[in-house]
Amino acid sequence: MIDREQLRRLGLFDANVPRYTSYPTAPHFSDSVGSSTMRDWISNIEPGSAISLYLHVPFCRRLCWFCACRTQGTKSLSPVAAYVETLKAELALLKATLPQGITLSRLHWGGGTPTLLSADLITDLAESVRDAVPFGSDTEFSVEIDPNEIDAPRIEALSAAGMNRASVGVQDFDDTIQQAIGRIQTFDLTRDTIDALRAAGVRSLNADILYGLPHQTKGRMVESVQKLLSLNPDRVALYGYAHVPWMAKRQQLIPSDALPTPEERLELFDAARRLFVWDGYREIGIDHFATPEDGLSIAKKLGRLRRNFQGYTDDTSEVLIGLGASSISRFPQGYAQNAPATGAHTGAIREGRFSTSRGHVFRGQDLLRARLIEAVMCDFRIDAGEICETFSMSRKAVREMLEPATRSFDGLLDLSNEGLFIPHEARPLTRMIARSLDAYDLSHAGHSSAI
Prior knowledge:
Elements: H1 4-9, E1 16-17, H2 35-43, E2 50-57, E3 59-60, E4 72-73, H3 78-97, E5 103-111, H4 119-132, E6 135-145, H5 152-161, E7 165-171, H6 175-181, H7 187-199, E8 204-211, H8 218-229, E9 235-240, H9 262-278, E10 282-284, E11 288-290, H10 295-302, E12 306-308, E13 311-313, E14 320-323, E15 328-331, E16 334-338, H11 342-350, E17 356-361, H12 366-379, E18 381-383, H13 384-391, H14 395-406, E19 414-416, E20 419-421, H15 430-435, E21 448-449
Parallel strand pairs: 2-5, 2-14, 3-4, 5-6, 6-7, 7-8, 8-9
Antiparallel strand pairs: 1-21, 9-11, 10-11, 12-13, 15-16, 16-17, 18-20, 19-20
Helix pairs in contact: 3-4, 3-11, 4-5, 8-9
């Protein structure tokens, strides 16, 4: 059994590593990918195929101190309404560029706070989405919900628009912790929001909860998780709080001396993990949990679990197109990211072009290493047979590629001609193992604690 000292010796408590929601990760994007590349990649999507869309709404009524997402505060709906017009124009541009017969597999509205939109704006934007890319027979439409920024008319509008999965941010239910992170959200408000969503016909519900927050103790973690379990979410993301005040200036408001140590973070995670498992949830990858009937559990069982910018997914579409400022798209050819500032993004769309400002064209071993890292992050194993078949490699070549990635982990990993396997006791090291398969320079800023 791996012990705490061994984890410390292997560097778990000191390492800063990517979350690997893409490979290569966003810090390695360059300005070699622009608007014309985005247009060409969209034009070359297979006619009649299904794609996924992500719409980014960067506005928030209030800025939570813990958040490191690209967002901006607003006191009125005027800039939000103007931004929706930009999204509609971007959707029209997408429609004009797409080949014939494209349908929608997954649609996700994130932010920011997409529920900041009024009911009328929600309906207007949803109609524009359907006009640009028709829903398929089993389209999943998910929206990030802030219980502080939702009401009955907006829930009704989202339900009428086809939302069938809601993602509710929780973070933590403890009042002391909420005060320290600038996110006040009572359990009663969260419960009432979830009840209203289910009453409106939303069939699936996700919840996000954080560990590693200021003043968080094992007792407080357990209490928050138990409260969350009483709400019966179908899927839970248990994310580690990334304290990066040099990148997210608002995090300077969070008392760093109140943050748990890396060792304590591991204890917090494990306490929450045990509760989810005891309650019947399946472990999904490194930080998700799902009921046995949830799509993630089924995808894991069938070996179809994937990872993208939203985390773990059962979406198998080859194309994910991001709309809105800073959104990232993934194509078989590479990644394309929109201009991060809303002004620059809006200006490009008004000129009739995509705002793509950076990205990455896959080359060399990118796709091979991307699959190796995804397999590690999703399945805790690399199937040599699959890699050989997909990339026309011999088992010997696969093993030789994996050997350097395993030597530095004290013999904890099982490597054979069948592939690589990470035993359960070594899984806290998963992101570090993924890093060992990364061929890029990892000195870029922006990585988070390995635990």
